[in-house]
Structures are given as C-alpha cells and as structure tokens.
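User
Here is a favour to ask of a fellow structure person. I am asking you to supply a protein in sequence and structure-token form. Please set it down just below, with no commentary around it:

Assistant
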Amino acid sequence: MASASTFAFRAMDVAGVASAGEVEAESKAQVTEQLRQRGLIVLDVSEKTNPVNIEDFFKRWKKVDMRELAVFSRQFATLVASGMPMLRTLHTLEEQTQDEMIKEACAGLRADVEAGSTLEQAMARHPQVFDRLYRAMIRSGEQSGRLESALDQIAFQVEKNDSLRRQVKSALMYPALVFSFAAVVLIAIVAFVIPVFANIFKELAEEHPEESAALPIPTQICVTASEAITGYWFIIIPVLVIAVIAFIQWKRTERGRELWTRFTLRLPAKIGDVIQKVALARWSRTFSGAVSAGVPMLQAIKLTGETAGNVVIEQAMDDVYASVKKGGSLAAPIEGNSIFPPMIGHMVAVGEETGQLETMMDKIADFYEAEVDAKVKALTSLLEPVMIVFVGGIVGFIVISMYLPMFSIYEKIR
C-alpha cells in the first residue's frame, strides 16, 4: 500500500464559492474523488513537498498529553453547548490550548472543516491526537445531532482515563526513583570503589606472597564484576542498548504483545492483579463512554477492544463481537473468559436484561478505579521495604566481600 502524502487543493461549490485546504491521500486521483463526493468542483490539486525536518522525526514518537487533551475536550464541549459556530470554536480552541500537538491539530481541523469536511473526517487526519474511539464518538454525535452530548461524554472519559493513569504513575514514582538511585550507586561502587580494594589486595599479595591465598568466592565475584564493567563497558553498553531495542521491537509484534501481557498478568506480589484491574477499569470506562455516545454496539465492542491497551482483553472482545454479531449476548462470552471476574459477567447480564448496560458499565468502572487506588497503595507500601532489603543486601554483600580478605591477610601477618 502506498504511503499517504499531503495535497493542497483549490475548489469551488455549485454556488461558485471558492475554498482551499489540504488533504492526506495516496494519489491526486483519490483527492479529486474525495472532493467530488463533497460536491465540490476541483480547480487544482498539487502535492506538497516538505523538507526534511528533525523536529518532524521526533514528533512521530511524541504522544499527546492526556491532561491537555482532557482540558481541550471539556472546553470543546462547553463552546459547542454555548452555540458558538464550529469554525469560531476551533479558532478559539487553537488559541486557548498550550499543547503544540493539539494546537497544530486544531489548525488542521479548522482548515478541513472550512473546506467542507466533517469534524470526524478532519480528526482522522490527526490520529496521534484523536484515536479511533474518539473519532467514532464524534461521528456518532454528528450523525445523531447530539455532538454536544458526545463531546461531554468524551471529555468525561478522557478525564477519567487521565486520572487513572496519573494515579498509577504517581504511586509508582517513589519506588522507581529509589530503585534508579540505588542502581546508580551500586554501579558507582562496582566501577570505582571495588577497584581500589582490588589494588590493595594485589599489593598485599605482592608484599607478603608467603601469607597470601586465593580470594574468598564472594570477593572474587565482586572483583570479576568490577573488571567486566570497567574493562568491557564499550561492549556491555551497546549490547544492553541492542537488547532493549530488540525487546521493544519484539513487544510490538502481535505474538510478543500477547506473551508479554500474559506474563505481566501473572507477576507475583499482587503486581499482576493491579495490572488486571487497571485494564478492566479502562475497558469498562471506555465501553460505557462509547455506548453512552451512541456508537453502534458492534463498533463499540470492536473499538473498545482495540483501545483497551491489553491484548488479552482485546482477544476477549473479539469473542464478544462474534457472539453479538450472531445474535448472542454480551454476557455469555464475558462470563466464560478468565480475564473478567464473575462480578463483571453478572453485572453485564443484568445491564442487558434491564436495558441499563451503560449504567452497569459505569458502576464497574467506578468499582475498579477504587480498587486500583487501594491496590496500588498496598503495592507501594509492600515494594518500599522489599526494595530497601534488596538494595541493603547487595550493599552488605559487597562490603563483607571487600573486608573478608583483609581480615584474613591481617590475621596471617599478625
């Protein structure tokens, strides 16, 4: 498949009103066809050639700030509810936002909407800012004439997802900082302190060859590790970098994602339990938002699975999709999958029977968000002493290893 390029166009409608803008497509013919479908008469189409820009290279790896997207979504909902025209709304949002990615996307939305695109079509040209679920909820709002309600629901969902992400991130920040600092200190000890002791042992052995003996095994381990780090760092560092890159690439593969996700769900010390509950909280909140915004059920199921951020839940939603497509229920495949606790299956079944699926999914999301809060705090309180004991044990092992031969040599000399 050919890669999409950016084309600049000039066109006019049947009333003779001129318009201009930019469109991403694979060819000029595709641009022309898109414009004709909008009822426009094409005057000119030309491909834009962009110079190589290092900033554009790094933008590919940059992600939109979820907090800024939540603020943008809430402001968008408020401005639409006030009755402000769409073009003026987008211009106001462009001036209001502080995030460069969202500001750039707003400028593109305004140009495309002015050229005749729908809001959802314009957002599709900025997938790094507006994901598929976001766009599906916008499309549903546009088609039903409830754009204000859809934007409200989007804002609420993005705020909840951002709150959940920040909650987990802030709880794990302290253990991560402690572990990083400890790792730096240990590397410094191995690289700079142990060589000093190794030289002392060597000098003592040369001065008193008759009293010297082989170093104790713990000391030999520490000295060997120090020699490896100081003598072969130019090999160790590239190997570690290559290993990390290879792991990241492997994790991006379909098989790698599945194996890694299943591995993380089985991590001990309640870590896997926390990961599962975070995924369930995000899944239920996303599903509720999609149903509330009026996204068709089959599309909501598909998009919820794809945006859950967990391949096990994604596979489970594939089973739900197949069941509903055949006329079956949502609850049956959910109850039969181990990733979902029994409570979820029962609540989904009740939601289907009473026609209150959206309400039930909201309750599930609220429950698991509270569970994540409690579990993360408990996990943090458990990790802190474990890390202190682990780091202290390694430092103690190094200290004892360095002093063992000195005591031995001193006793023999005396």
User: Anything to note?
Assistant: Confidence is low (pLDDT under 50) at residues 52-58. The first strand starts at residue 5 and ends at 12.
